[in-house]
Amino acid sequence: MVRLTTTRSVTVTDRTGLLTDRYELTMLDSWVRDGSADQNRAQHSAVFEVFARRLPEGRRYGVLAGLGRLLPLVEAFTFDSDEVAWLQAEGVIGEQTADYLRDFRFRGDIDAYPEGDLYFPGSPVLTVRGTLGECVVLETLVLSVLNHDTAIASAAARMVVAAGDRPIIEMGGRRTHEQAAIATARAAYLAGFASTSNLAAGRRYGIPTVGTAAHAFTLAHRSEEAAFRSQVDALGAGTTLLVDTYDIAEGIRTAVRVAGPALGAVRIDSGDLADEAAKARVLLDELGAPDTRIVATSDLDEFVITALADAPIDGYGVGTRVATGSGHPTASMVYKLVAVSDAVGGPLRTVSKKSKDKVSVGGHKTAFREYDDGRLVREYFITDGALPDRGKPVQVPVIRAGEVVHSPGIEEVRAFTAAALRTLPAEALSVAAGTPYLTVTLDNPEETA
Amino acid sequence: MVRLTTTRSVTVTDRTGLLTDRYELTMLDSWVRDGSADQNRAQHSAVFEVFARRLPEGRRYGVLAGLGRLLPLVEAFTFDSDEVAWLQAEGVIGEQTADYLRDFRFRGDIDAYPEGDLYFPGSPVLTVRGTLGECVVLETLVLSVLNHDTAIASAAARMVVAAGDRPIIEMGGRRTHEQAAIATARAAYLAGFASTSNLAAGRRYGIPTVGTAAHAFTLAHRSEEAAFRSQVDALGAGTTLLVDTYDIAEGIRTAVRVAGPALGAVRIDSGDLADEAAKARVLLDELGAPDTRIVATSDLDEFVITALADAPIDGYGVGTRVATGSGHPTASMVYKLVAVSDAVGGPLRTVSKKSKDKVSVGGHKTAFREYDDGRLVREYFITDGALPDRGKPVQVPVIRAGEVVHSPGIEEVRAFTAAALRTLPAEALSVAAGTPYLTVTLDNPEETA
C-alpha cells in the first residue's frame, strides 16, 4: 500500500537510492567503467555478509531487528532522473553509471536470520548475493536499518526479561529522531514491549497505543481534582491518572475520590519509585482501591526494572533508555565482501581483510545451531557449502531475484522473539555485565572430522 | 518544494500530525470537550517552553540544532481524513475532536534561540504560544527533532574544536536510522564538520559530499594495485586511497607508484592511528609525495582527536561517535507548560510542577546574555516582561501566526555556530569532563534592584 499526500513545506521521498554513502557510488562508477558491475548475472558474482564482531560491552546476546523494514526499502532502492542528474552534476558518477542507475533495482538474493532471532559475535545475520554493483550500493541502507533497530530490540529484550510478567509501554519517541521514533516503537514491540505511546507506529504497524495525560494537563486545570475529573469524564474510570504533579499522596486521594475504586491505574513519574510505589499501594488499599494498578515511569532501564522487582508495581513506561539502546544506541554490524568472481562466469574466490584489529573471515558462510532439550548450546558456520550432519540452518531466504519472499506480520515476529529468548539459559538472560553466551566460529566439516 | 514519487512497497507521508504520543491527543480531546482547547485565540492562552535541566554529564556547553528541520514540520502538522478516522476508531478521540483535527494547523507563535546557538542548563531555547490545544499537540515533534539534532551538534562541535584546522568528514549514517542519518549529517555540518558521506544530505541540504572506496573495492580486484589503478582512472590522482586492506606500508608504496606524487591522500582505518600516521608521513615523504595528505578514520571522537593533535594527520573521518552523540545520543530537553489562562480572555497564570527531583520554574521566560569583550559571561532570564537595562535578548521570532518567519540557510547557521563557539573561553571549550560553563537562572529586575 502506498499512501502519499502533499502538504506545503516538507520534502519526502520514498525512493531509497540516495540513502547511501558517496563511496558506494564512486566504487560502482569504477566497476561500471571496467565492466565488473554487471558481470556474471547468471552465477552471482559477489557475496556480502552482515555480522557483528562483538556485542556491546557486557551484553550476553543480541536480538536482530529491522528486517521487516529493510526488505521493502531494498525493493525501493531506485533513483529517479533528477537524482541521477544530481549525482552527475556533483561528480559522483559518469555517463555510463548514470545509464546504469536510471533503471537500477536490486535483482539479487538475500538470506537472513529471521527478524527477532538471537545473534552473537560472528553470526552471519544477513547475506547478499548478486552482481558486484548491485550488492555494493546496499551497504549503508542495510547497515542503517539493522544497526538502529537491532540496538533498540537488543536493549528492549533485556528490559522485557527483567520485567517478567509486568507489561512495558514504549514511550521514548521524544528522545530520538522523529522517524527513528516509529522504528523504535516497532523494535521494542517485537522484543516484547506491550504497547507504545507513538501514534504513527500504531497506525503503520498495528502496535497497541496507550497514553493518558501529562503534567501539563493537571497544571492547565484550576486544580488537580478538576484535571482528574476532566480526564475521567473523557476516558472513563479505567484510565491512568498521573498523581505526582504536586504531592503524590494527595494526588492518589484525589484520584480515588474522583474515579472511585474502579480507577484503572495511577502513574508515578518522579521520586524514589520503589518507596513511592510501596506507599501508593498501601494508600490505594486503604482507600478501597485494591485493584487500581501502579504504573512507574522516569528513566527506567533493565537495571532499574530489575531493582524494582519487589516493589508493588504493575507496569512500566520506558522512554529514553529504550530509544537510545540503553547505553548502546547502535549495533556494530558491518557489511563485508566475503567472496567475488574475477571474471564473467568465473568461480567465486574467498576474500578477507588483513587490517590490524579488523581481521575478517572470508567465504560465504552458512550458519547452524544445535539445541539440547530446547536449549541453544552451539552456533557455528561453514564456508564450503557441504552440509554438516548436525545442527539446524539459521538463515532463511528473504529476497529472491529482487522480490521479497519473507514478510511475517509483527505479531509473528514478536512470538518468534519470545520463543528465541526461551532457548537461552537463565545465566545468559541476566542483565548483569557478562560475556557473550556464544561466539560463532568456522567449523567446516573436513576440519573437525 | 514538494517532491513525491510512488514506488512499490514503502509507505511515506509528509504530514507530521501522527508523529506524536497518544496522550497529547487524549488531553486535547478532553480540552475540546470542555471548551478549553480553542479559548482565548486573541490573547494566547498557553505558553510552553523547551529547556534542558542539565547538560550531558561532563559537558560544558550544548549547541542547539534542529530548528531548520522543525519549523517546516510544524507547518506540516496536519491530519488527513483517514488519519482522523483511524484516531476515532482507536478510541483516541471523539467526534468533536475529529472535527477539530480535520482542519487543524498550528496558528500560534514560536520564538527560539537561533539554530547553532549555545545553550546551558535552564536556557529557554524555544517558546510556543497559542491556544492550549494547538500547543499541547506539538510536544513530541518538537522534542524529537531538537533532542536528536542537538545531541549530534553538541558532540560534533566538541570534535570540531578538538580538530582545530583539520577538516572532519561525517560518515556515521550507517550507525543510525536511515532518516536520522540525514539529520545527523546536517547537524554535524552546521556544527563545523567539513563534509559528509551521506548523499541524501548532500542533495537535500547542499552539504559537500565526499567518499572514495571501501575495503571491498580493494578485495574485489585481483590485487591492491589493480584496485588503486581503477580508482585513480575513475577519480583522478587527487583521490584518497584506502591503504590498510592488507599491509599499510605496502599499500602506501603501491598507492604512490600508481598515482604518483600528486596522490591526494591516503586513508588509514585501523591500528594505532598516531603510530601509523607517523610512519605513513615518513614513508610518503621518502617516496617523494610530501603533499599527499593523511586521513585517519576508525572510532574517532573528540577525545581520540585531541590525543592525535600531534600526529601528522591532515583530516579525520568520524562515524559512529558523532551519529550517537559521543556517548549522549539524546539531549534531555523537555517541553513544559509554564503559563495558562483559566478563562476565555483571562490573564495568564504561572504554573509549575512540584514533583520531587523535577521541579520547574514557571512563567514565560525571556533570556538575555551579557558579554565582556566578546566573551559570553552571563545568561539569565526574566519572567515578568519588564526589559532589563543590560544584556542582549537571545530568542528570535521563528513562527508568527503559524507561518515560518525565520529560515536562514545552512551556511549562515554554520557561520553563526562558529561565531557562538568563539564567545566561549578556552576552559569552556575543553573536552575534559567539567561542569556547565553557565547555569541560566531567573533574575527579574525587581528582585535584583
UniProtKB/TrEMBL annotation, chains A, B:
Keyword Transferase attributed: yes
A biological-process GO annotation: NAD+ biosynthetic process via the salvage pathway
Pfam family, one: NAPRTase_N
Reaction equation(s) it catalyzes: 5-phospho-alpha-D-ribose 1-diphosphate + nicotinate + ATP + H2O = nicotinate beta-D-ribonucleotide + ADP + phosphate + diphosphate
Keywords: Glycosyltransferase, Ligase, Phosphoprotein, Pyridine nucleotide biosynthesis, Transferase
Pathway per the UniProt entry: Cofactor biosynthesis; NAD(+) biosynthesis; nicotinate D-ribonucleotide from nicotinate: step 1/1
Entry-linked InterPro entries: Aldolase_TIM (IPR013785), NAPRTase_N (IPR040727), Nic_PRibTrfase-Fam (IPR007229), Nic_PRibTrfase_pncB (IPR006405), Nicotinate_pribotase-like_C (IPR036068)
CDD domains: NAPRTase_A
Post-translational modifications: Transiently phosphorylated on a His residue during the reaction cycle. Phosphorylation strongly increases the affinity for substrates and increases the rate of nicotinate D-ribonucleotide production. Dephosphorylation regenerates the low-affinity form of the enzyme, leading to product release.
GO MF, one example: glycosyltransferase activity
A Gene Ontology cellular-component term: cytosol
Nicotinate phosphoribosyltransferase N-terminal domain location: 18-147
E.C. number: 6.3.4.21
UniProt key word Ligase: yes
Transmembrane segments: none
Function: Catalyzes the first step in the biosynthesis of NAD from nicotinic acid, the ATP-dependent synthesis of beta-nicotinate D-ribonucleotide from nicotinate and 5-phospho-D-ribose 1-phosphate.
Family recorded in the similarity comment: Belongs to the NAPRTase family.
NCBIfam families noted in UniProt: NAPRTase_put (TIGR01513), PRK09243.1-5 (NF006698), PRK12484.1 (NF009131)
Protein name: Nicotinate phosphoribosyltransferase
